[in-house]
Amino acid sequence: MCRHLAVLGPGSPIAESVLAPPHSLLRQSWAPRLQRYGTVNADGFGVGWYAPGDPLPARYRRAGPIWADESFADLARVVRTPALLAAVRDATAPGGDGEAAAAPFTEGRWLFSHNGALTGWPESAGALAAGLPPGVLLRLEARCDSAFVWALVRHRLLAGSPPGPALADTVRALDRAAPGSRLNLLLTNGSAITATAWGDTLWYLAAPPERVVVASEPYDDDPGWTEVPDRTLLSADREHLTLQGL
């Protein structure tokens, strides 16, 4: 379920990464090429981006499909950014969370997205939820599994964990609690991207020092796209990209 991507590069319009490519997130919302679970990503979308001189990212999120939002098309055409994270959300069971369930989720400089699903949700999360302070649970933006996954990651980040271990430890804990979950996580602070491939597709396109893209699937047919092996932690900035087994 869901499709997402993160981009680091020189300043460019949001549309260049999210709307313009032939197989962009816009097209993936109704015709993904590699999506294994779900068919239509129409239950919300969002993009977070960084503006020069402001340490905190901005977000634009909506509960409906990305193709129906003409205001976003205008915004994406004119807003330039050196870094972004965007996602489209798979059609899901009815619920009242609306745009609060759409990625990216945020804390300080961080933007986060989850592509996948927790098996047995929400019962499977009980033991892990019990290990979080009550205030963390009360501040959940939505009652969906992705918001809960973000709560676990955010708790580790705020406790001082670097992004790689924060994602890796969260994925391992979730897999123990809910075996068979799909846990492709994507995290950026505008300077680096950290991601996990766990149960779903993940690709990257790197052209250092200019640009790096990490995405659920390639947004065009550039031969430079490389698939990330399953159960892998990816860490990237504008100069380097590394892969580590999980």
From TrEMBL:
Catalysed conversion reaction: gamma-L-glutamyl-hercynylcysteine S-oxide + H2O = S-(hercyn-2-yl)-L-cysteine S-oxide + L-glutamate
Pathway(s) annotated for this protein in UniProt: Amino-acid biosynthesis; ergothioneine biosynthesis
Keywords from the named record: Glutamine amidotransferase, Hydrolase
Protein name as it appears in the record: Gamma-glutamyl-hercynylcysteine sulfoxide hydrolase
Described function: Catalyzes the hydrolysis of the gamma-glutamyl amide bond of hercynyl-gamma-L-glutamyl-L-cysteine sulfoxide to produce hercynylcysteine sulfoxide, a step in the biosynthesis pathway of ergothioneine.
Taxonomy of the source species: Bacteria, Bacillati, Actinomycetota, Actinomycetes, Kitasatosporales
Organism: Streptomyces orinoci (Streptoverticillium orinoci)
SUPFAM superfamilies: N-terminal nucleophile aminohydrolases (Ntn hydrolases)
Domain Glutamine amidotransferase type-2 as annotated: residue spans: 2-246
Catalytic activity, EC: 3.5.1.118
Pfam families given in the database record: GATase_4
